[in-house]
Amino acid sequence: MKRFLLAFLIGTAALAATSSCTKEYYDVVPSITMVYERTANQWGVDDFDTDYVDLDVPELRDYYVNQGIINVAISFDNEKTYFAVPTTLDGVAYSYDYTTGSVRLYAQDPILEDGVSVPIPEHLFIKISLTEADFVQ
Hints:
By secondary structure, this protein is of the alpha+beta class.
């Protein structure tokens, strides 16, 4: 019995020592982030009476529009905290759209009631992150 146990232990140790482990490496998904600072006098009003601010984002290429991921966040406290857009804060609904080379951030009444104006932030930081992604059909 001792010989059997000894042989079993030696065989298990040899198997453990000679077996190979496979390491898996994951690629880091490249992402770039830009921060823009805007003041109330830089906002405009569109045909639907919605306040907006346009951001020139030359890094926003066709690749990101067609396949990548575009995230927008806003900060009202000098970048101490950020809120992911879309969001509604203090009675203002923030949303965005984008096209190659630009992002437009909207501020509007959350229930879209006619004649209601919303307060535009006096000072705002806008963070835009662009992330590569694999498109699967």
